[in-house]
Design brief:
The complex is a heterodimer of chains A (605) and B (198). Chain A is mostly helical and 605 residues long. Chain A is 74% helix and 1% strand. The longest helix of chain B is centred in the last third of the chain and has 28 residues. At the A-B interface, helix 8, helix 9, helix 19, helix 20 and helix 21 of A face helix 1, helix 2, helix 3, helix 4 and helix 7 of B.
Chain lengths: 605, 198
C-alpha cells in the first residue's frame, strides 16, 4: 500500500513538473491579450440569451484559423470557460439561462435575485464556476495521460461499442423525457457522416453525383448551422422584447470566502460529478449542472431551501457545469471523442490546427495535454477576475436588443462557414442544418447527439466493417475482449434503463450496487486507516478507552471485520443485481412467491 | 406533439428506406472487398435501426391518436406571427446565401453591398412594430442625460414629423449598423484572413 501511495505521489509530482514546463510555452504578452479578449468575448456570449458556447466556439474557430495553433486553441478554451460562466448572469437576473448549461442556475439564482441578493448570488456563481473549473483541470491533468495510455488498448471492437455507447448515452441523457428522440438524433448524425467518400475503399455514398459532396459534410459548417443559424431562427420565433435594467454594485459581487468553507463538500462533490459527466461522450455541461444540483439537494441539510434561493444549490449547479468543461475535453484528447457539443468544436479546431487528438496523443505530442491544462488554468483565472471586475459593464450588454444582434450572428455564420475552405457548398450545409436543426429542436430532438453522431460516424463506419472482417461475421468474437464486453453491457443497460417498467424494477438494484461499490472503496480506506492507527497505538503501548490493552490480533480482527462487512455488502448487492432478475423470472414462471425479508437483529426494537 | 411525432416517424421511414436502398445497391467491387467490409453495410445497419425507432415513434403516436391529422390544432394569431418571423428569417437567410457570388440584375453581387442590404432589411423588418417604443425610450434617455444635444437634434431634425421620427431613427441606426458590420467583416476576412469573399 505504501508503494502504491509512493507511486501516486511521484506521479503527481511528475505531472506538476510537466504542467510547469507547459507554462513556459505561454510566456509572451500576446498570451495575456488572447486570454483577456477571448474570455471577455466568452462571458459576453454567455450573458446574451440566444448565443451559446457552442455557437461562439464555432464562430471563433473560423476567426482564429489563421492564428498559431496554441494561440487559437488558447482563445477557444478561454471562450469556452467564459461562456459557460457568463450564462449564470442572465440566469440569476432574468430567470433565462444565458446558455443551456445554466438552466439549473435559474432555480436558485433567480429567487436569490428576487430577494435582493443578486450581487452575492453572482459572487457565489463566480466562486462555484472558478472552483469547478479548477477541479476539472486537476482531473484533466491527472486522468487524461493515464486514460490515453489505457486507450492504446482500444481496438476496432472497442471503438465500435464506444461509438454506439456514446450515441446512446448522449441521447438518453440529453432527451431525458423521451430518450428515443435523443437516439434518433444520434443515429441521424451517424447517417449524415456516411455522406461522401468512405475511408476504406473510397466508394462514393449519398453523393448523388455531386463532386462537392465527396468530401463529406464538414463538422464546423454543420455545427454553425445547428447551433448558430437555428438559434437565430429560434430567437426570432420566440421573441421576447424585454430590455433589462439591473443595477449591481461591484462590492456586492466579490465572493465570500466563508462560502467555500461552508460548502466545501458540495463544491468537491459537484466538481467530481461535473467532471465525470463531462467525460461521458456527448452529454455536456447542462447535464453536469443538473446532476450536481440533484446530488446536492439529496444530501443537503437545507433541502427545503432548494428552488427557493439556496446558496448551496446555486453553488452546486455552477460548480457542476464549469467542471464539465475541462471534463469534456478529456475524451477529446484521449479518445478523439467529444464529451459535449462545445468540445466537438474544440476537437474540430484541434484537427484544423494539425493536432491529432486520440489514443496516440501521449506518444505523438505528450506535452500537448499539459498545454491544454495551462490554457484552462489561464481561462479560469481570467474568468474569475473579469467576472467580478466587469460585472456592471457586462450587465449593459443585456440591453442590446436581439433584433440588432441576430443579423450580425447570421452574417458571421455565413462567412464563418465559407472561410475555412472558401466554397459555397459549406454555406449551404450550414443553411440546411440551421433550418432542419430548428425544426428538430422545436420537436424536442436534442442537438448534442446529432453532432456527436457526425463526429463518431467515421470511427463507427470503419470499426464496424473492420471488426466484421476480422472476426468473419462471428458475433461471439465481441465477447472475447473484456473492454468490448463492458461497453456492450453498458449499451444494453442504457437501452433497458430507458424502458419505464425495467427502470423501476432494476433501478433500485443498480442504486444499491452503486452504493455498495462506494461502500467497498470507503470500507477499504477505513479498514486501512483503522489498521494504521491501531498499529501506531500498539507500538506506543496505548490502551483502549475501556482499559483493555490493544493486541496485534485484535487490531487484525477489527481490520478484517471491516473488510469482510463491506465485501459481503458488495457481493450481496451485485448478486441481487445480476442474479435477482433470473430468480424473479424463475419465480414468475413457477408461480412461487418470494420469501419475506428475514428479520434482522434489532428490528423489533 | 403526437401528430408531429407521427409525421416525423413517416419522414424517418423515408430516410431509412433511402439508407437501406443505398446500402443494398452499393457495389462490393467484384470480390476485391473482403466480406463484411462492403461500403453499404453501415448505411444498411443505420437504416434498419432508424426504421425500427421510426416504427416505435409511429406506433406510440397512433396510440395517442396522432395519426388523425384532421382537426389539427389551428395556430392562433400569436403563433402565426411567431411562425411568420421564423419563416421570414429562414427564407431571408436562404435568399441572402443564394445571392452571394451570383449574377444579379446584370452584375456580380458584391459581398459588402449584399451584407449591408441583408442586415438593414433584417433590422427594419424585425423592429418595425417596436420602432415607436424603442425610439421613444432612446429619446427620453438622451433628453435626460444630454439635454443640450437633444435640443440641438430637435433644431436640426425639426422638419421630421413626430409620427415619422421613430422610423427615421430606425432607418438611420439600421443603416449605420449595417454599414459598420459589412465593412468590418469584409475588411477582416478579405484583408486580414486573405479570404476571397463570395
Amino acid at each position: 500500500m505504501l508503494a502504491m501511495l509512493q507511486d501516486i505521489v511521484s506521479y503527481l509530482i511528475q505531472t506538476a513538473g510537466y504542467v510547469a514546463v507547459a507554462f513556459g510555452k505561454f510566456n509572451s504578452l500576446d498570451v495575456i491579450a488572447y486570454v483577456i479578449g477571448a474570455t471577455l468575448l466568452g462571458i459576453i456570449i454567455g450573458v446574451l440569451p440566444g448565443l451559446t458556447a457552442t455557437m461562439g466556439l464555432a464562430l471563433l474557430t473560423t476567426l482564429t484559423y489563421k492564428l498559431e495553433p496554441n494561440a487559437a486553441l488558447l482563445s477557444l478554451m478561454c471562450l469556452y470557460v467564459g461562456a459557460i460562466y457568463g450564462g449564470s448572469r442572465t440566469a440569476i437576473l432574468l430567470n433565462i439561462p444565458g446558455t443551456p448549461a445554466n438552466a439549473a442556475t435559474t432555480l436558485d439564482g433567480y429567487p436569490l435575485a428576487r430577494m435582493g441578493r443578486a450581487g452575492p448570488a453572482m459572487g457565489t456563481a463566480t466562486t462555484g464556476s472558478f472552483l469547478g473549473t479548477v477541479i476539472g483541470i486537476i482531473f484533466l491533468a491527472t486522468i487524461a495521460p493515464k486514460l490515453a495510455d489505457y486507450a492504446l488498448e482500444f481496438q476496432t471492437h472497442e471503438f465500435l461499442w464506444l461509438a454506439i455507447f456514446g450515441v446512446l448515452i448522449s441521447g438518453q441523457l440529453t432527451a431525458m423525457e423521451d430518450p428515443i428522440k435523443g437516439w434518433i438524433a444520434g443515429f441521424l448524425g451517424l447517417a449524415v457522416a456516411m455522406i461522401g467518400q468512405e475511408g476504406l475503399y473510397m466508394t462514393d455514398r449519398f453523393t448523388f453525383g455531386y463532386t462537392e459532396m465527396q468530401g463529406g459534410i464538414g463538422l464546423i459548417p454543420a455545427m454553425v448551422g445547428a447551433f448558430g443559424f437555428s438559434e437565430v431562427i429560434a430567437v426570432m420565433y420566440n421573441r421576447r422584447a424585454e430590455i433589462v435594467r439591473a443595477k449591481v454594485k461591484l462590492l456586492d459581487v466579490i465572493p465570500d470566502p466563508r462560502e467555500i468553507v461552508r460548502y466545501w463538500r458540495t463544491i468537491g462533490r459537484s466538481g467530481v460529478i461535473g467532471t465525470i459527466i463531462g467525460i461521458i461522450p456527448g452529454v455536456g455541461e447542462d447535464i453536469g449542472a443538473w446532476v450536481s444540483y440533484a446530488a446536492a439537494r439529496r444530501v443537503s441539510k437545507e433541502k427545503k431551501m432548494f428552488g427557493k434561493g439556496s446558496v448551496e444549490g446555486l453553488m452546486a449547479a455552477e460548480t457542476g457545469n464549469s467542471a464539465a468543461a475541462p471534463g469534456a475535453v478529456i475524451p477529446v484528447l484521449t479518445l478523439g471523442i467529444p464529451g459535449s457539443a462545445p468540445a466537438a468544436i474544440v476537437l474540430a479546431a484541434m484537427v484544423l490546427h494539425g493536432v491529432r487528438p486520440g489514443p496516440m496523443i501521449m506518444i505523438e505530442s505528450p506535452s500537448f495535454v499539459y498545454e491544454v491544462v495551462v490554457m484552462f488554468f489561464f481561462a479560469s483565472i481570467a474568468m474569475f477576475v473579469l467576472g467580478i471586475l466587469l460585472t456592471p459593464m457586462l450587465l449593459k450588454v443585456l440591453t442590446i436588443p436581439r433584433e440588432r444582434l441576430m443579423p450580425a450572428v447570421f452574417v458571421l455564420c455565413v462567412i464563418g462557414s465559407y472561410a475555412i475552405q472558401q466554397r459555397m457548398f459549406d454555406v449551404w450545409v450550414m443553411v440546411v442544418f440551421g433550418i432542419v436543426g430548428f425544426v428538430l429542436r422545436e420537436m424536442k430532438y436534442p442537438m448534442a447527439p446529432l453532432v456527436l453522431g457526425i463526429v463518431l460516424g467515421d470511427i463507427f463506419d470503419k470499426s464496424f466493417r473492420r471488426s466484421w472482417v476480422i472476426h468473419d461475421g462471428d458475433l461471439m468474437f465481441y465477447f472475447t475482449r473484456p473492454i468490448s464486453v463492458i461497453l456492450m453491457v453498458m449499451c444494453f443497460g442504457t437501452i433497458v434503463m430507458s424502458i419505464g417498467p425495467c427502470r423501476r424494477y432494476i433501478g433500485p438494484k443498480i442504486q444499491a450496487a452503486m452504493s455498495a461499490t462506494v461502500g467497498l472503496v470507503t470500507g477499504f480506506v477505513r479498514a486501512h486507516f483503522s489498521l494504521i492507527v491501531m498499529l501506531f497505538a500498539l507500538q506506543r503501548g496505548a490502551k483502549a478507552p475501556d482499559g483493555v490493552t490493544l493486541s496485534a490480533r485484535g487490531a487484525m480482527s477489527v481490520y478484517f471485520g471491516i473488510l469482510a462487512d463491506t465485501v459481503l455488502d458488495f457481493v450481496r448487492a451485485y448478486c441481487a443485481l445480476l442474479l435477482g432478475p433470473f430468480v424473479d423470472l424463475g419465480r414468475l414462471v413457477t408461480g412461487t412467491k418470494a420469501d419475506p425479508e428475514p428479520a434482522r437483529y434489532g428490528d423489533d426494537r | 406533439m403526437p401528430r408531429a411525432d407521427f409525421l416525423t416517424g413517416l419522414v424517418l421511414l423515408l430516410v431509412s428506406a433511402m439508407l437501406i436502398g443505398e446500402g443494398l445497391t452499393l457495389p462490393g467491387a467484384g470480390g476485391l472487398i473482403m466480406k463484411g467490409g462492403e461500403p453499404g453495410r453501415v448505411p444498411l445497419f443505420l437504416g434498419v435501426v432508424i426504421a425500427t425507432m421510426a416504427v416505435v415513434l409511429i406506433v406510440r403516436a397512433i396510440s395517442q391518436n396522432g395519426h388523425r391529422l384532421r382537426g389539427a390544432a389551428r395556430f392562433d394569431s400569436e403563433n402565426k406571427q411567431a411562425l411568420g418571423r421564423a419563416l421570414a428569417v429562414a427564407v431571408g437567410g436562404t435568399l441572402y446565401v443564394g445571392l452571394l457570388g451570383h449574377n444579379f440584375l446584370g452584375s456580380d453581387t458584391d459581398y459588402a453591398v449584399l451584407t449591408f442590404g441583408f442586415v438593414f432589411i433584417f433590422i427594419v423588418i424585425a423592429e418595425w412594430k417596436l420602432a415607436p417604443e424603442i425610439a421613444g425610450r432612446r429619446w427620453q434617455t438622451l433628453d435626460r442625460r444630454a439635454p443640450a444635444a437633444a435640443a440641438r437634434l430637435t433644431a436640426i431634425f425639426g422638419f421630421v414629423s413626430p409620427a415619422r421620427a421613430p422610423y427615421v431613427w430606425l432607418f438611420a441606426t439600421a443603416a449605420f449598423q449595417a454599414v459598420v458590420l459589412s465593412v468590418i467583416v469584409s475588411y477582416v476576412f478579405e484583408k486580414q484572413f486573405f479570404v476571397q469573399l463570395p
